[in-house]
Amino acid sequence: MGHGGGGALSAELVENVFLPAFGGRTLAALGDSAALSLGGARLAFSTDSFVVRPLFFPGGCIGDLAVNGTVNDLAMSGARAAYLSCAFILEEGVETSVVGRIAGALGDAARAAGVEVVTGDTKVVESGRGDGVYVNTAGIGLIPPGVDIRPQRARPGDVVLLSGEIGLHGVAVMSMRQGLEFGVEIESDCAALGGLVDAMLAVTPDLHVLRDPTRGGLAAALNEIAAAAGAGVVVDERAVPVPPQVASACAVLGLDPMYVANEGKLVAFVPREHADGVLAAMRAHPLGAAAAVIGACVPDHPGMVVARTAFGGTRVVDLPLGEQLPRIC
Amino acid sequence: MGHGGGGALSAELVENVFLPAFGGRTLAALGDSAALSLGGARLAFSTDSFVVRPLFFPGGCIGDLAVNGTVNDLAMSGARAAYLSCAFILEEGVETSVVGRIAGALGDAARAAGVEVVTGDTKVVESGRGDGVYVNTAGIGLIPPGVDIRPQRARPGDVVLLSGEIGLHGVAVMSMRQGLEFGVEIESDCAALGGLVDAMLAVTPDLHVLRDPTRGGLAAALNEIAAAAGAGVVVDERAVPVPPQVASACAVLGLDPMYVANEGKLVAFVPREHADGVLAAMRAHPLGAAAAVIGACVPDHPGMVVARTAFGGTRVVDLPLGEQLPRIC
């Protein structure tokens, strides 16, 4: 299971199996989406399969997750999603009404994100060979001129911004799955981030890195950026907004919020001179109201993420090995 | 199972569930790929999930199928595939060596087709929730200027061309699955058709319709074209090349070769004045050596496909209801 968790085992599979087989410099850049040139246009292209369990959870379902996941991967290269493909693998016996509810949520999420579903596919597998519904989406978007956002561009001196509270998606799905109640219902933060990124780009096209901390959470996102850029990252743990209900749920479930998946948050590496302006623009957007400076990119310990703890110490924030929370997206 | 078979039940699911949910004129055009405009470029975009069983079969495996299936969908709008995404859903416990062999075949097929895998995703599901390996690909290609190939453009008077022998892919997979031996090994015709389409377009950009007869076979492809164009199609059964080993296997398996999936063939609707030239170009290409005129588009019985049988009679060739051969691609 760990090979799909977005941690070190996932990275190993990509590096040892997929990269040698597929080759190519674009894939090797390992961004959330690929930046391409085609017919004179600069395109971003990305894909994700969604295998979340259960299919419906507080705050969303596999349908809107499938739209927002891919729209956000495109947004992380500064691209506004334009077109989506959508492919269903249905398990024999799944109710048409369930497929209909998922398709409805998917269509609504696409309209909300301003993206059009233009092509699709449906396959059916025997009972016991699937799990109700799996959905794949791929997306294409245009990268605006002058924008070059990728993990390799993190630079010592960059300010690290986070768009809001972490842990909501993972905890919402996990509590649903385990039948846990925490007094207050925890809802997934599943949302499309294209509008927030547009607001940030209006301040400066020179954002260095954007990443949505999904599988593996904020810890995995920061580690991937540190590794890609060969730079160090320092995070101030007290500055990372963790909602109290996420903190309690994580305590019960034995999880660290830094490793829990989000589906409507982003982390940004921004040149110091633009940090205040970008932060203000984020806070003025509904999806960035709780945005905060959470750390900085530093010349020390290249490739490594270090957290300043609430008690004044420091600890290394590792890339998770396998999967804390399987099938979260 | 029938809802994934490419027949009438599939069409019903698309029309009653997906189209109302997703909306949009592009999706409603229901081509093998969507024709889009983005940043001044004319793009084709398509996706397919692959759930073929077994993963390896005579003449190919799920890896090259995943490349050729999507490359061919793009080629059916006249586009040369440029970029592919590739997403794996792995079942817990599948051997890394199996994933590696599939990835290797996928990479080789991509290089052979001149397309680059630029972005990907891997998910892992629990044992019993998948079937070894499912693969999704999505592809983007450029549509050359002046090319407008889609099912709606079939016109009475068009000549119907077929690029070669039918039934090889479906029978190869099915015989492998059922452990049947037919004396001669039957190999899948799995191949990328971009080069063949380029050769046809070099004769005239005014090809009206291209379709690769995959799920549901030649019968489904012709029915979809007849329905989309509101035109009739007449096929001369004796002119459709059926290899003797496919005919014998179909007799044993109780199948009609007209309904069996192909993965390296195309059917073309071509204006009469260009038919000879296009046929010659097809025959000069290795993947079109056995190309033949198999029928015509007619003003009679709009939306219906009629076959002239070997005995001089006629019969209606229906859209298959469900799935003759489940999980063939």
Q: Which two chains share the most extensive interface?
A: A-B, 73 and 73 residues
| Number of strand elements of chain A | 14
Percent helix of chain A, as a range, is 25-40%
CATH topology-level fold name of the largest domain in chain A: Phosphoribosyl-aminoimidazole Synthetase, Chain A, domain 2
Question: How many domains in all of chain A?
Answer: 2
Q: What's the shape of chain A?
A: globular
Low-pLDDT stretches of chain A: none
The largest sheet of chain A is:
7 strands, mixed
Mean pLDDT of chain A: 93
CA(first)-CA(last) distance of chain A = 13 Å
In CATH's first tier, which class of the largest domain in chain A applies?
Alpha Beta
Quaternary structure type: homodimer
Classify the secondary structure makeup of chain A into a structural class. Answer: alpha+beta
- Rg calculated over all Cα atoms of chain A: 19 Å
CATH H level of the largest domain in chain A: which superfamily?
A: PurM-like C-terminal domain
Order of helices and strands of chain A: HHEEEEHEHEEEHHEHEHEHEEE
Domain PurM-like C-terminal (chains A, B): 155-300
Pfam families (chains A, B): AIRS, AIRS_C
Family (chains A, B): Belongs to the HypE family.
Domain PurM-like N-terminal (chains A, B): 32-143
